[in-house]
Structure formats: C-alpha cells, structure tokens
Amino acid sequence: MNSANIFFDFSKLKKCGKNVIIGRTVRIRYPELVEIGNNVIIDDFTYISTHLKIHDNVHIASGCKIIGGRSSFVEMKEFSTLAPNVVLSAGSDDYIGGIATPMIPLEFKGDVEIGKIIINKHCIVGSGSVVLPNVEIGQGSTVGALSLVKSDLRPWLVFAGIPVKQIKERNKDEILHLEKKYKESIYK
Asked: What is the pLDDT of residue 93?
C-alpha cells in the first residue's frame, strides 16, 4: 500500500487487500464502512461517504464521488471502472422540502431516498456521469460520458444520454476470453 493519506487512517478501513493504491488526497469519511479487494486503484481527489465494497481489479479514477451516507451501500464488482468525475449517489434528497444539510436527522429532511448501487463485473461508467440510488448496472455494460442513470441497466450493452438509452452491444465473448487469459497469466 502507498504512503500515508492526509484525510483518513488506513488502519481504520474495514478491509484492505494487497496491491492497493489509494491517492494521498482521497477522502473516506467512514473508513470503517469500506472494504477494498486486491489490485485496486483509487485515484486522488475521490470522495467516499457511504458503505462501499470494492472487489478485486477495480479502478476509480480521479475526482469521483461515491456518496449517500452511513445508511446507503455501493458495490463495485471485479474489473469495474469509474472514469474521472463520476458521481455514484446511493442516497439522495428531493431538494424541495426539509433541511438538506448532512448532520440533520432524517425526520427533518425532505423526501429522502436511501438505497444501493451495484456496478457489476466488467462495467465502465464514463466521465462525468451520475448514477442515482437503487440502480444496478448489469454485467459488462458501459455508460457513456456525461450520462444520467436512473434505473437498472441490462447486461453487455452500451448506454448513453440524459437519461441513458441503449446505444449498442458490447463484445461479451471477447471480454470474457481476455479475462480468462489474464487470470491464467497471473496464476502460472
């Protein structure tokens, strides 16, 4: 693991695997709620404030926000990637009524949605995209840059837009073949 971080104590992470690189300016508000697998990179200027489970071989690029508070949950499965400046918002407010500041108890907030976001294996979320609460991105799907994801996405497809629409299919066989070759090469 890399050198000390200026915003949280590595020893307080719920779990941290091997060959993990976390940028010095990554901020994790609740490190005790974060599990990190092996071969993971979390680039600088990323902010995490929710339950987060990161599986092996995941990359979170710079400037990402994985938010929602202590009651929400985000999971990134093996070989998934967030491009720069993605927002995964597993908790959200309607911004119409109530008090929106984070330290206020729920009974004083507006219509709050607390949920989960699941980014499945081989998924990519493009730069500047936003994923809202209670969304599952199906295995192998990708989201184009500057997109809004408000509902579940089916597997092995490419989506883009505000809100997202299906654009085309991904090459599932090729990707799974490359994964197999990669795993064979590291377990020789």
From this structure: 76
> In Å, how far are 68, 91, 94, 127 from 99, measured between CA atoms?
16, 15, 10, 30
Domains of the chain: 10-186 (2.160.10.10)
Residue 86 to residues 45, 94, 147, 170, 184: CA-CA distances in angstroms? 12, 20, 10, 21, 32
Residue 51 vs residues 25, 32, 94, 105, 181: alpha-carbon distances, Å? 19, 9, 21, 18, 32
pLDDT at 3: 56
Question: Hey, how many other C-beta atoms are within 10 angstroms of the C-beta on 117?
Answer: 26
Q: Tally Cβ neighbours within 10 Å of residue 169.
A: 12
pTM assigned to the model = 0.93
| DSSP string for 42-90 | E-TT-EEEEEEEE-SS-EE-TT-EEEEEEEEEEEE-TT-EE-TT-EEES
What pLDDT, in 10s, does the model give residues 98-143? 777 767 777 787 778 889 999 999 999 999 999 999 999 999 999 9
